[in-house]
Fold this sequence. Notes:
- This protein is α/β, with parallel strands linked by helices.
- It has two domains: 1-76, no CATH class; 101-288, Rossmann fold.
- Helices cover 37% and strands 21% of the residues.
- It has twelve helices and eleven strands.
- The chain has helices at residues 20-26, 33-44, 48-53, 61-75, 80-84, 107-117, 135-143, 156-168, 217-220, 223-226, 228-237, 256-265; strands at 86-89, 92-95, 125-129, 148-153, 174-178, 190-195, 200-201, 221-222, 241-250, 268-275, 281-288.
- The chain has a seven-stranded mixed sheet with strand order 5-4-3-6-9-11-10, sandwiched between helices.
- Helix 6 (107-117) packs parallel to helix 7 (135-143).
- It starts with 19 loop residues before the first helix and ends with a strand.
- Residues 1-8 have low confidence and may be disordered.
- Bound molecules: S-adenosylmethionine.
Amino acid sequence: MIGNNLLVSGHEDLSAPVTIGKLLRSAKGMIDHTDAHWLLQSVLNSNAAFLIAHAEQPLDAELVDHFQQLLARRVAGEPVAYLTGERGFYDLMFEVTPDVLIPRPETELLVELALSKISSVRQCRILDLGTGSGAIAVTLAKHRPNSCVTAVDLSTGALAVAKKNAKKHDVRNINFIEANWFSGVSGEKFDVIVANPPYIAEGDSHLQEGDLRFEPLGALVAQNNGLSCITSIIAQASGYLEPSGWLVLEHGYDQADACRELLEKAGFTHLFTRPDLAGVDRVTGGRYG
Length: 289
Ligand SMILES: C[S@@+](CC[C@H](N)C(=O)[O-])C[C@H]1O[C@@H](n2cnc3c(N)ncnc32)[C@H](O)[C@@H]1O
């Protein structure tokens, strides 16, 4: 007998034995098919191939209950990544909690562009501002083992997650600082500075939609129509860059022009803007000196 059967869809009879296939079908119409697979993989600590190969395998009531609890939370809107506690980014799997922004595929573009500016031979110094889960910093450190990465965040909770992710991936060329943007690195110089800062305007209606409803506001929202963090970072960055150092920033879909203007005013040259996979201008950067 299954404990809490409240959520079971009318289309599937969940009387015992409850198999993997039956459980997945019971979620049909309630949540996305892929999400149901992610949740069950997490409950069974398995992978997609296992679910397919063992569709007829009966499950213990405890596991069924666990899945149904996650299903109920997903139906209520909680992000899959917070329910499973992880999200893939670039080529690594990152632990995530509600203390951090869930790493986004569009941020992989920022990583790619940053990697193109970081020598794989010479020892470079890299600064990641607003590291969150550490997705950018850990990925850069892993791909450029000769470099030294400094990862900054204002949030104690976020830094705890980022440190766990560095440990999980055995990344040692990284250090973490709890600080307000550059305040923790005064007097230091970097070859490349990257940031995916908060850039959504206060009161933006998207904040009431999807995963954003559950993510920390301090990771999402910036004043001055979403531009205050970007403005502050660009204004200070030149003081922390080596000659010919690069600043690379992720920004909102309509903020590329503003970023370029701010960079130009701050003395940056070689400006570039690149679109994400959806064709939206997403990353802008420039060189100082
Ligand atoms: C959009 S999230 C980016 C997280 C991660 N870098 C990523 O791309 O997935 C922005 C991060 O900036 C941090 N943050 C916000 N204001 C900050 C400040 N004044 N100084 C340092 N970090 C800040 C937030 O805590 C959050 O972790």
